[in-house]
Amino acid sequence: MENLFAKIKTACLTVVAWLNQWAKDHILHFAVADNIATVSGIILSFILGWILSPGWIAAAVVFITVAVILLKDCWIDDSADWRDILAGLIGLAWALLKLWLFWLAVILMQ
Asked: Which positions ≥6 away from 17 have C-beta within 8 Å?
């Protein structure tokens, strides 16, 4: 049992060391884009889910999130950084995966 805890601790320390190599700004862009996409997707699913298919809701989520990413990085910031935009797009992709799993669970529950 102690060996299992040592392996878990080693894996966690490896992940933390890997994350420490990233700039905190990129991690924050990832997290904010992920949260924007997830929350807007869930809200749109509850409000418009009876009218629109998950594909249209996903398209709306992509539009909203990309608009916010580009608005923040190209208009509000002094200079646009493509790495910030890329981190946001990766966060969007992660959120779309979570939303797909959410929609799959809703469909399977019916």
From this structure: none
What count of Cα atoms within 13 Å lies in the side-chain half-sphere of residue 86?
A: 3
Contact 68, 36 (CB under 8 A): yes
- Spatial neighbors of 42 by CB under 8 A, at least 6 apart, are 99, 102
Q: Mention every residue, 6+ apart, whose C-beta is less than 8 A from residue 25.
A: 84
H-only helix segments in 21-81: 24-48, 54-70
Here the tokens at position 34 are 């992920």
Taking the model in full, what pTM does it have? Answer: 0.76
Q: What is the pLDDT of residues 27-45, one digit of tens each?
A: 889 999 999 999 999 899 8
Query: Nearest CA to 91 among 14, 11, 22, 43?
Result: 22
Handedness of CA 6, 8, 11, 15 (dihedral sign): negative
From residue 12, alpha-carbon distances to 5, 19, 28, 29, 60 in Å are 10, 11, 20, 22, 36
